[in-house]
Amino acid sequence: MGRGGIGGAVAAADLENSDSTRGFVRDVKRIVVKVGTAVVTGQNGRLAMGRLGALCEQVKELNFQGYEVILVTSGAVGVGRQRLKYRKLINSSFADLQNPQLDLDGKACAAVGQSGLMAIYDTLFSQLDVTSSQLLVTDRDFRDPSFGHQLRETVVSLLDLKVIPVFNENDAISTRRAPYEDSSGIFWDNDSLATLLAKELDADLLIMLSDVEGLYSGPPSDPQSKIIHTYINEKHGKLINFGEKSRVGRGGMQAKVAAAVTAASKGVPAVIASGFVTDSIIKIMRGEKIGTLFHNEANVWDCSKEVTTREMAVAAKDCSRHLQNLSSEERKKILLDIAGALDANVDLIISENEADLAAAQDSGYEKSLVARMTLKAGKITSLAESIRAIADMEDPISHTLKKTEVAKDLVFEKMYCPLGVLLIIFESRPDALVQIAALAIRSGNGLLLKGGKEAMRSNTILHKVITSVIPDAVGKKLIGLVKSKDEIADLLKLDDVIDLVIPRGSNRLVSQIKAQTKIPVLGHADGICHVYIDKSADMDMAKRIVLDAKVDYPAACNAMETLLVHKDLNKTEGLDDLLMELAKEGVVIYGGPVAHDTLKVPKVDSFHHEYSSMACTLEFVDDVQSAIDHINRYGSAHTDCIITTDKRSADTFLQQVDSAAVFHNASTRFCDGTRFGLGAEVGISTGRIHARGPVGVDGLLTTRCILRGSGQVVNGDKGVVYTHKDLPLQ
Length: 730
Description:
Aldehyde Dehydrogenase, Chain A, domain 1; 6-stranded parallel β-sheet; 25 helices; about 15% strand; disordered N terminus
């Protein structure tokens, strides 16, 4: 290994999103790819042309980038058996058909199938302007000491010419009794052949493509089974029971694992992955954690990973205690230094963010997600100013909420204190990292952050900028950046270290997190926000509010998704004008049953929808109570608004809508921590716990009880005179 990876599009940009245990692919140049029979053929035994085409395209891409790819393919026996069955069938008499005898000699199948299989490879590669070559070997060949030397010379010559060597065992002339059944010799199937070639040809990586995603802890069909991303022989070797062999090949998963373990022991890392995924090879070369990795240092990684996950959380807690010991002015200075560091690194932050945006666009992400990812100079300046605003807030730590004289010279105090360590899981918005970090520092908490992989470069540079100014007296591990999705499961088990989890994302994400942890979860769900226009509404005001709620920032969670209108306003000039203005802004309007029938707009499938951020659902309701019922049924308890001049209707709406934020005559876009004067927010909680709505510093604090005495004891309450008198806080 270590001949220097080619880099290029696969290894340079995408390795930012790679897993640390797959970092060795940076040094990979020569790759052996083994394709199983289940990948080459379909259920009916015929060639799976779609999968073969995707395989050849991936090999061509790697070949173009300078990687040396050697292909080991199965499937000849299967293809030959299918052809011979057909040939025997059409040459059969009626009597033969009555008593079919379709047992076929495996060597004959191999001889017939090999030419057809190679013809397909040659055709597919030729279409991609790639030259392939066929090399058939047998177990007996490798018994000749000079064969290995000659094989290496031939393969190196082909690779220098950018030719793809395609290997297969020559089953037709194998000396073993039944090569497709006899497990003896130097190699005994194409899995073991691939391992042998990887060693003989000095490969840097062996990729084995199968019909499953990798090695599982149990049957892949069992919902309780989990994929093993890194195989540890000492850990997994005796725990896994293998099922039946492949439906068409001769080995199955047990043969692949044995071959992969052998390759890893000889210094060639191996990955077993799905050949049904059209870009699995490319993803492996990007360093993404797919399939099961076999590596001779994996046992070290496994231990260090478990330690690192816990150590990261413990370090954040230790640093948070150092942070709490600082004075208010010292904590304020840290925030001001972070704001200054953001201002000083605008160009660097934008450069990394633009790389994320380009990758997201190339990957076909929705425009709304790309919009949430974007960091412009003005946005970064605004983030710096919001941090300065947080720094200027009253210090919340040790703030006394209540002071009571319990008895003479016995004083009780209830005070704010930090929660401890927060784990924030957020998607696609790198600006959230900055806001959350500032709030955590102001509230004296340690912090672990896991952002979406689509914004990895942006998150990484922001984390680096922020932690660079945290003083050594606190420790830069106060804020940890979790880069692997797989680490989340480990962190969620640390209920003895992590004190609160805040997932910012969909209801599904929040539900998944809650199901996986004992740690309290403050859920930030998706935003299905409503605006209701009552019959007494000022329509000029309604137009301003509705346009702002929908168009100001359509991708925001507090943007309007559903417009409810009193039925008396249907087909009025004011409503028609409003809808026309929405259409001019590019808003696509869908209709509920009534709106669809009366205005002929496209019908909505579900009021709890997930359409484009520039879509809006319109529906007519009978009265304010109908609007309230609709919101409580279909809304997400985020932010909802009524536009009306009727105070009674407004009060009814404000009291009965069961959402975290309920507005009267104001845009839903005001539901924001900064706009509410909280400085920033870690998210908007739609649950019903201590923090609801935009969660600022107060939501990241809990309380502790302080009791100051002068030697008092309970002693059965004898001699204690309780006064329970409120005392001034100052």
